[in-house]
Amino acid sequence: MPARQSDASSKTAKAMSVADYIIDRLAAEGIEHCFGVAGDYVFPICNAVDSSPKVKWIGCANELNAAYAADGYARIRGAAMLVTTYGVGELSAINGVMGAKAERSLIFHIVGMPSYQNQRVHKIAHHTLGDGVFGNFVALSADAACCHAVINPENCVVEMERLIAEAHRNNQPAYIAVPSDYALSPVVSADVKPIVPRSNETALKKAMAAIAERINKAKSVVAIPAATVSRLGLQKQAQKAIEALGCPFVTTLMEKCSIDEGHPQFAGMYAGAVSEPNTRQIVEGADVVLDLGGVNLNDITTAAYSDHLDLSRFITVGLDDVRIGDEVIANVRLADVLSELAKFKRSSAPYRGKPQGLAPVNGDPSDKMTMAALYPRYAAFLRAGDTVVLETGSSSLGMTPTILPDGVRVEAQVLWGSIGWATPAALGIALADPSRRTILITGEGSHQLTANDIGAMGRFGANVIVFVLNNSGYLVERALEENPNWTYNDLAPWNYAELPKALGCTDWFTARVTTLGELDEAMKSARASKSGAYIEIMAGKMDMPPALAFAHGQLQAMYGATP
Amino acid sequence: MPARQSDASSKTAKAMSVADYIIDRLAAEGIEHCFGVAGDYVFPICNAVDSSPKVKWIGCANELNAAYAADGYARIRGAAMLVTTYGVGELSAINGVMGAKAERSLIFHIVGMPSYQNQRVHKIAHHTLGDGVFGNFVALSADAACCHAVINPENCVVEMERLIAEAHRNNQPAYIAVPSDYALSPVVSADVKPIVPRSNETALKKAMAAIAERINKAKSVVAIPAATVSRLGLQKQAQKAIEALGCPFVTTLMEKCSIDEGHPQFAGMYAGAVSEPNTRQIVEGADVVLDLGGVNLNDITTAAYSDHLDLSRFITVGLDDVRIGDEVIANVRLADVLSELAKFKRSSAPYRGKPQGLAPVNGDPSDKMTMAALYPRYAAFLRAGDTVVLETGSSSLGMTPTILPDGVRVEAQVLWGSIGWATPAALGIALADPSRRTILITGEGSHQLTANDIGAMGRFGANVIVFVLNNSGYLVERALEENPNWTYNDLAPWNYAELPKALGCTDWFTARVTTLGELDEAMKSARASKSGAYIEIMAGKMDMPPALAFAHGQLQAMYGATP
């Protein structure tokens, strides 16, 4: 996302404070919300956010939740801001930021450090190991980012441009540590303009020639628009490229619905041995697999390494390079390759898949809940303009094979797979684009990790519709073991439907449903609710969706000799 | 704590699995509970816990909570066990483990890694950055420990003894990473006995001679039993040493009540300029400050560096050394020094402080809540056999200057000061010693971070009495700033008293009180409750205890030039 004009760049002559400069410069990246938890070392940064007319403070229940929310926000808006305090705060957030690094989501993580004054004289201070040492946590947090800096008034302007450019180049987090006294100091101006990552023209031409040569020679081509396409907001560009090429495209679990599943060139979800036979043949039999954005072939997306893919047939268009076999052409941006591909003149008619359509809704209203009935009901419930946030576990394994209506957006954290992610991510996603309705689909085990930010949804008017599947424990774990009854898969027996009221969401619609008819009614009320809605779905302890049942049989292949 | 006989050491000939060996060996350290969150890479470890007749699995809502609970447990039992999964789990826990490192609490943190098989061939796997690299998170988690190892069947027995010894030597966390296939392999036996850290006899004699020389020459001596005394379970030994010496002793915020405040030699709480004048004179005027365990003189314990202490007058008895001025005598254990000090023959009558007694309970039953009335009521409510867990913030700043009855134990995380710690820590503390009643005193802002483990309290029968002070935001932060009304100090408006029921604690006593009389009644009911109790106390937004009001005036000194 190109930088907008910021007060920061125009006002450095007036000597804004370092804190004000940082917040204003990041606001120019299109960020209007800041997720975080306050703390004394970070007060100057918090004050800059609270004083800014451009950025709103979104206080979360804790820092990990704030990081997840920022990740969700960044997936929609291209970038997000996360503010935490030194040591205790940043380390609480580190798993969320690391997940953003793994899944290519751009979080600017700003941390307030003890003052340079106190660092210089090695004061023994709270939020430290009590040793007068201040560098240890910077090293840890920096590991969860693709770039980092400890800011002072003189390096601030240059470092911010470097960090913003590098973070966009990789679409990964940047870590920005600011000593509390420096944060209040006037920023020293510097003559530096925003650095926008662009392709090298020669490299781009070389890459396009190589791609065209491979594609023109191929008898069959299949495209996979990777999750990074959505992270960079390039879904339409990817679609145009695929339409110009006329080839079929598939998605893995990581990029479901990044292009509508009703698109005539859609050839299904690819997941190794659990793919439909036709989809599998299209992918594994293709002369060229055009990987747009760098698809991640991990144990989840390949259904326990059950794929038969020949990587020598891949053309991988990364964020910043193109790889064909062992040849790497660097300094080529994904967006530019997509634009060039959209000019492709194909010689034959485009691929046309058979329209798959939604699965029919099944079961009688008086029937008890089953997974066979639940997932088609979700599909029937969803509509264009909805953004669905899927929690890792049986929820994502149940939903990803389910064909969804056009115009539905799906977000999930498939590779990093940190349970608990989806609830706060839904908060961030809802605030990032209130014109869409955000739907959270989670199991209750994962929900317990981060449910305390249901309160923030209510406080900040994020009218999320929450579905919590209550099947008495971690179903995905029961399914992945020989003995499903280990006590560590049991949970504290929450009364989930009472939670929103306890957390201050007093005007939410809430329901606890045990039959299909109750679910149907609750879905109608949830859709009608102007505020949020929360539906607890009671289900069988071992009732699992088909993909999970398949995984159950693949334990050996999935983890090597043993789990 | 010396190792008890374990099945592990006697049964290695039978080739237990690595996972069973690790759990059994740690059980021999007196650990009967394992806090954690399951995950597939750590299944073999979880299974070993669930199969063990010696250790009970305590599933927490999330990993940070589990780490805090383990920290609390370790403070009572000497050591604790924490189990998390690779990457997502261990990183979620890292702040809690780092806090245990800072505060000298011994957590054995066991993490299940992807199988050696898959690591060896660089498989792309979930819970990684998708890069086939498996070492990055080990380096991060190891930083939160004082020692670590990646376990295999051959190094397991030796490494476990090394880790246990080193963790006890420092009373800090040990990090134990176990690839999932190795966890199931038979352990290879090794001829190694438990290594128990002991003093070097010569060094101990030298240290005692140096200490005696300094003390005998001194006109005045004051002792400070540091927080480490409690962490190592040496409270009685420290008390005997102090009684033999006959000198006055003081405590800082970090070691409140480690020796009864009714002890005749107790001379008050020392906190720099906010100490009672007599206490301050005793400490700052002493010829020798006998620091038993290594007191941490940070901004909190010195009330914003307002102390006037001459460190050249300190005798610091560390966990493993004695320091007098610049002379360090190493290989001397705190326990041994305390035993030797207990043999001291004093030449004069012991110090006798004036008994301070509890502050009188004030206010009428119909009065609205005030901090002036609340803290004396807590003191009157508490009794011998209670363990009070204080949350960082106004709760700890209000409670620490309040004299408490003899036999009350206090735990707080003063140096690391990670808000949210106290709620799960209370879970761990309650399970560590059910013969005592655990009382949690927290503000609602801190409580929001980790309140989801109130559910685990109910599930595992931890009958904690929870007091939640609801004063509409982070009071400690409002107090530490010129503008108390920044929006980042506001919170989602939870209905706290409804929370236990929503989290499954259906048989708890719950109340929401606004007057002193309501609090008195609720306290009686809470004390009578056989299960847990939860009291939400409604208080004024800016009504703060005196120590916090003092800190408000000390911002300049506390953070250098600026906060």
TrEMBL record, chains A, B:
Residues engaged in binding Mg(2+): N471, G473
Coiled coil: none
UniProt superkingdom: Bacteria
Keywords: Decarboxylase, Lyase, Magnesium, Metal-binding, Thiamine pyrophosphate
Statement: the UniProt record of this protein carries the keyword Magnesium: yes
Domain Thiamine pyrophosphate enzyme N-terminal TPP-binding: 16-122
Annotated Pfam families: TPP_enzyme_C, TPP_enzyme_M, TPP_enzyme_N
Signal peptide as annotated in the record: none
Example of a GO biological process term: aromatic amino acid family catabolic process to alcohol via Ehrlich pathway
Cofactors named for this entry: thiamine diphosphate; a metal cation; Mg(2+)
Cofactor note: Binds 1 Mg(2+) per subunit.
Name of the molecule in the record: Thiamine pyrophosphate-binding protein
Organism per entry: Pseudaminobacter soli (ex Li et al. 2025)
Source lineage: Bacteria, Pseudomonadati, Pseudomonadota, Alphaproteobacteria, Hyphomicrobiales
